[in-house]
Design a protein that fits this description.
Layout: E1 3-4, E2 25-26, E3 32-35, H1 39-50, E4 55-59, E5 73-74, H2 76-83, H3 88-92, E6 96-98, E7 101-103, E8 106-108, E9 120-122, H4 125-139, E10 142-145, E11 149-154, E12 159-163, E13 168-171, E14 173-176, H5 183-187, E15 194-195, E16 200-208, E17 216-221, E18 224-230, E19 236-242, H6 255-266, E20 272-281, E21 285-287, E22 292-293, E23 296-298, E24 304-305, H7 313-332, H8 342-365, H9 370-383, H10 386-397, E25 420-421, E26 424-425, E27 435-439, H11 445-450, E28 457-462, E29 472-477, E30 483-488, H12 495-506, E31 517-522
Parallel strand pairs: 3-4, 3-14, 4-10, 14-23, 27-28, 28-31
Antiparallel strand pairs: 1-2, 5-9, 6-9, 7-8, 11-12, 12-13, 15-21, 16-19, 16-20, 17-18, 18-19, 21-24, 22-23, 25-26, 27-29, 29-30
Helix pairs in contact: 1-4, 1-7, 7-8
Length: 529
């Protein structure tokens, strides 16, 4: 069979991976197979390609989604993730900025959250997928549509994936990003425990002959709740929630089904017609009991499903991908031990468990009995307290996530703030998905320590712009932007702890004697006279 060489990563030369493949790959071979070309699978593919890993994405649908869009917004943390890869501007150009997030339809102002983009970016999932697919193509990701996973076997050296058309693909690892009914999860024998649906929700993208004057967001009535949201110049998204029955999710949804539900709850159908897309879902909440079975991993909806309260599903999946991507790349490239993949579940499983918990709470608060109404009023009053509001906003936007790390410093495990440094900023240093050791205090010993990881970490010496509130001399930032080591200003740096952090997250030091890659020194940003 003919062979091919890995395609080059189509990006700025500074992001070219130093990794070169040690073997020829056949046309059906790759290093990582990803099942599913939704936001999670495409983001993971982009992350792996930044590290020079060959990726094949298998998508059962023959064409990209152009009408169906379950999700409709990006939260602060996801925008930060895209920003640190240099991708955010593409999304900002196509989305609409909307202030505030919601907890069970109770608005939470996020304008005072410490972030460059403290708002929700309203953008349909179909547009998100299109932009990520464009980026994946630029990076050299191979995408095969109309390709459905039918089975797989794994052994000590890899995974053989069997497709529905009878063909096979051999890879080092397989990642299931194939949705809530994941074939990969089922074939891997991974359990999916949780709670069943207790209500029925309908969604319809329709035109309205008599639309309301303003958007209606989760208005509660005697027989349920409903929303009517303008999503374009001539179409609306209509949603209904009924708590008195649980419908069969596989039962077909028609315009008449949605019309009857809206008439029952709102007393009008607003003259709906010309449906673009109709769907039904419930509030079932389930999570894979483990995210990994040998060389097979899960991410996104394949690992966790829940009611779409607060718009957290797509965002959680994209963040799964960014947590997993650099770790899987390090293992595939032979730089880090297989145990590094276990930290993916350690860090991301609790995050999704919390999402399931808060969406269950939000769904309960949508019920329409008097006791629930009283509870909502109590919560509404509490949200008026800034500490409560910001606590809930952090949960919805994932800005409060802190992964477990060795050490006591509060910055450890958190995302590094996007500081202005000289004429740039921190997130610009992460465009290549490489680890960064940021030296803000001019510490000479750092060169000698990081030399053994020169192929995996950039040493950047810079000065924070005037007014920065980060009091630190040096910070080790993982490729996903989270802090794994810090030495505060004026403290003696614990270099043994730095070596441990480098080894833990990047693998053992290399004995090849690679040259340490310094980034150009950044000058302090001049202040106006």
């Amino acid at each position: 069979m003919d062979s091919y060489r890995r395609r080059p990563v189509a990006q700025d030369a500074k992001c070219q991976s130093p990794f070169t493949m040690t073997k020829e790959l056949t046309m059906t071979d790759t290093q990582v197979v990803i099942a599913g070309a939704g936001p999670t699978g495409l983001m993971l593919a982009c992350e792996l390609r930044l590290a020079g890993v060959d990726v094949l994405v298998l998508e059962r649908l023959p064409e990209p989604r152009t009408v169906e869009s379950r999700a409709g917004g990006l939260h602060i943390r996801t925008m930060e993730t895209l920003d640190q890869r240099g991708l955010l501007d593409r999304f900002l150009k196509r989305g609409r900025r909307r202030q505030g997030v919601h907890f069970s339809a109770l608005r939470l102002d996020v304008s005072d959250v410490t972030a460059r983009h403290p708002y929700v970016l309203v953008i349909l999932q179909s547009q998100v997928e299109r932009l990520l697919e464009e980026r994946a193509a630029e990076a050299g990701v191979r995408l095969r549509r109309g390709a459905e996973v039918a089975g797989f076997t794994q052994d000590e050296t890899g995974v053989t994936v069997e497709l529905a058309d009878g063909s096979r693909v051999r890879a080092d690892h397989l990642v299931g990003c194939d949705g809530g009914r994941s074939t990969v999860r089922k074939l891997a024998g991974i359990e999916f425990p949780g709670t069943p649906a207790t209500m029925t929700a309908l969604l319809g993208d329709v035109e309205l002959a008599e639309p309301p004057a303003d958007d209606i967001f989760q208005e509660r009535r005697e027989h349920g709740s409903f929303s009517v949201l303008s999503f374009g110049s001539d179409w609306y998204r209509v949603l209904t929630n009924e708590f008195d029955h649980v419908a069969d999710r596989d039962e077909p949804v028609t315009l008449e089904t949605l019309r009857k539900a809206l008439l029952k709850i709102a007393g009008t159908d607003y003259g709906m017609h010309s449906p673009r897309w109709l769907s039904r879902h419930g509030d079932a909440a389930r999570q894979a009991d483990r995210y990994r079975e040998g060389r097979v991993l899960l991410a996104g909806d394949a690992a966790h499903i829940h009611f779409p309260a607060g718009g957290q599903g797509l965002n959680t999946g994209v963040q799964d991908a960014v947590n997993l991507g650099w770790k899987l790349a390090a293992v595939v490239r032979g730089q880090a031990p297989d145990l590094l993949l276990d930290t993916y579940q350690t860090e991301r499983h609790p995050v999704a468990a919390r999402v399931l918990q808060n969406t269950r709470a939000q769904t309960a608060l949508w019920r329409v009995d008097d006791h629930t109404s009283a509870l909502r009023e109590v919560l509404r009053d509490l949200i008026g307290i800034d500490e409560v509001r910001l606590r809930l906003a952090g949960v919805i936007t994932a800005t409060d996530i802190r992964y477990p790390m060795e050490g006591t410093d509060d910055l450890l495990g958190r995302r590094m703030p996007d500081l202005d440094i000289g004429h740039g900023r921190v997130y610009e240093l992460l465009h290549c998905a490489r680890a960064v050791l940021l030296d803000l205090g001019g510490l000479p010993p750092l060169d000698a320590v990081v030399t053994g990881w020169a192929d995996r970490v950039d040493l950047v010496r810079a000065r924070p712009a005037e007014g920065s509130d980060l009091v630190a001399d040096a910070v080790f930032i993982r490729p996903d932007g989270h802090v794994a080591w810090v030495t505060r200003a004026g403290e003696r740096p614990d270099l043994d702890a730095l070596r441990t952090a480098l080894t833990t997250w990047l693998g053992p030091a290399s004995l090849a004697g690679a040259h340490l890659r310094h980034r150009p020194a950044l000058r302090p940003t001049p202040t106006p006279d």
